[in-house]
Design a protein that fits this description.
The protein has 12 helices and 6 strands. It is mainly alpha-helical and 248 residues long. The strands form 3 sheets. Strands 1-2 form a two-stranded parallel sheet. Strands 3-6 form a two-stranded antiparallel sheet.
Length: 248
């Protein structure tokens, strides 16, 4: 689970149907201001910050200048199309994609074991509006996570994620998977959720390792998209869920 800075996200974007693709280097920088306080963040607790590496929309102009023209054009702002969604759903079933995200989860678990952050299981970070941040993911990761959760739900004779659940979560300002104050699908949560902890550490520098880890993994996610030829879009979590869910 991210932080970012540079350009504040328009709250209206979170509820819109148009996805803005953030250039790769910008998306990496986004995680930094997302959930973590620090030199890049400077946002008040009540402002809309991004969740782990990718959660809030603040992009660094300095970073953008480092993008070559061809890559910048490739990741320019574009509307999410039905073809994008179909390709994410198809790619989510690919063995390489499953292996990638499973490996990413192990990587996060390794670092978390080393850093030993404290989680009080309050569910505060899942209440996006109240906590003052947003979470962002790639469309491919959203499709992968939803497919895994829907399969797990089917195995226990439960319904898949429904679009109305996402709509209701937006109205409440939280995550559709939040149940009784806790994550109802903890085993399959996205990488950003796994990385983010409210605990800032005894030295107050937890944001640094969280940002570094998110940047590492998000750069690998971008490379994965390019390797398998999947369209890259960086979306607010609930917007991504609304796009990839197949049930009304």
């Amino acid at each position: 689970m991210g932080r970012k800075e540079g350009r504040k996200e328009d709250r209206k974007t979170g509820s819109g149907r148009i996805g803005l693709a953030i250039p790769p280097l910008l998306s990496v920088n986004l995680f930094v201001s997302l959930l973590l306080p620090g030199p890049l963040s400077g946002l008040s607790k009540r402002s809309t910050r991004a969740f782990p590496c990718p959660p809030c929309l603040r992009a660094s102009v300095r970073e953008s200048k480092n993008l070559d023209a061809s890559r910048h054009a490739k990741y320019a702002v574009r509307v999410i199309t039905p073809d994008d969604i179909a390709r994410w759903r198809e790619a989510a079933r690919h063995p390489e994609v499953a292996a990638f995200f499973e490996s990413g989860r192990l990587r996060v678990a390794e670092v978390v074991r080393e850093k030993r952050p404290i989680c009080l299981a309050s569910g505060a970070c899942c209440r996006f509006e109240a906590y003052g941040h947003r979470m962002y993911v790639s469309g491919l990761e959203a499709a992968f996570v939803v497919a895994r959760i829907d399969a797990a739900r089917a195995a226990r004779a439960a319904n898949p994620l429904r679009l109305y659940e996402v709509t209701d979560a937006r109205a409440r300002g939280d995550c559709p998977y939040l149940r009784a104050g806790l994550c109802g699908e903890h085993e399959e949560r996205p990488l950003g959720c796994r990385i983010y902890f409210c605990d800032k550490g005894a030295d107050g520098r937890a944001a640094e390792w969280q940002s570094a880890l998110y940047e590492e993994l998000h750069a690998a996610i971008i490379a994965l998209h390019e390797r398998i030829g999947a369209p890259y879009r960086y979306l607010e979590w609930r917007e991504a869920l609304a796009a990839v869910t197949q049930s009304g």
